[in-house]
């Protein structure tokens, strides 16, 4: 089994508690778009999180167009994408907080130099950089080690498309077998899994019963192990690096 030398971290609700803030802004714009199309349905941020967590705004708009059978032209879609970025970044710069325990793990990994580290996100590059800067995590990642499905590819896409992970692997010159991804959502986990990368599913940003439910859903998708808290990160890595497999990997924590 190849030695793990690379860790890819999702950003939103994996390193930074940003999804709730972002989806508040998304809901306002989504409702504006629905109203402009004469569609009576309206979304709250909470409803958007439930339906579209892990997708970027462009991916969300593609899903809404398919659901409600309308079409935005390219320029109109791009205008809304830019508006959403601006609104979300303003909220993040004002209110974003790190996921509990994430900064401590990043600091330890950074000091150990055991792994190369990168951020691999669906969100726009400006948004990802604003998030990690706000919570003082940008110091752990080289400037070119932040990858965005919305900004870093020739054709913008969103997880669960594996394109951004395949791009990141090619850029860092690593194989999937040398890499671990940390993801919190179905779309994010699928993106990494489809790229052949073993996944630690972080569910610490979910509340109450949703934490256990998401853990089960992500295990069903094929993640290697579920991490409820960042304090379990080292044991999760040990589990993957050992090549262990189990019907219930969480029992190894």
From TrEMBL:
GO terms for molecular function: metal ion binding; phosphatase activity. Keywords: Carbohydrate metabolism, Magnesium, Metal-binding. Pfam families: HAD_2. InterPro entries: Beta-PGM-like (IPR051600), HAD-like_sf (IPR036412), HAD-SF_hydro_IA (IPR006439), HAD_2 (IPR041492), HAD_sf (IPR023214), PGP-like_dom2 (IPR023198). It comes from the Eukaryota. Its cofactor is Mg(2+). SUPFAM superfamilies: HAD-like. This is HAD superfamily hydrolase. It comes from Penicillium cinerascens.
């Amino acid at each position: 089994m190849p030695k793990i030398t690379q860790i890819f971290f999702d950003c939103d609700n994996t390193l930074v508690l940003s999804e709730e803030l972002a989806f508040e802004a998304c809901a306002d714009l989504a409702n504006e778009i629905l109203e402009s199309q004469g569609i009576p349905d309206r979304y709250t941020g909470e409803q958007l999180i439930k339906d579209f967590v892990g997708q970027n705004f462009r991916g969300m708009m593609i899903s809404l167009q398919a659901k409600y059978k309308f079409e935005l032209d390219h320029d109109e879609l791009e205008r809304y994408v830019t508006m959403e970025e601006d609104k979300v970044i303003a909220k993040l710069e004002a209110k974003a907080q790190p996921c509990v325990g994430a900064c401590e793990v990043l600091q330890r990994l950074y000091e150990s130099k055991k792994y190369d580290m990168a951020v691999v996100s669906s969100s726009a590059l400006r948004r990802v950089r604003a998030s990690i800067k706000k919570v003082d995590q940008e110091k752990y990642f080289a400037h070119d080690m932040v990858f965005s499905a919305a900004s870093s590819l020739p054709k913008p896409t969103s997880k669960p498309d594996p394109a951004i992970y395949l791009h990141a692997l090619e850029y860092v010159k690593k194989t999937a077998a040398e890499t671990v991804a940390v993801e919190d959502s179905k779309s994010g986990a699928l993106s990494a899994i489809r790229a052949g990368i073993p996944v630690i599913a972080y569910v610490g940003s979910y509340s109450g019963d949703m934490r256990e439910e998401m853990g089960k859903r992500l295990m069903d998708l094929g993640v290697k192990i579920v991490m409820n808290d960042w304090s379990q990160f080292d044991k999760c890595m040990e589990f993957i690096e050992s090549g262990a497999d189990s019907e219930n990997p969480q029992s190894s924590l």
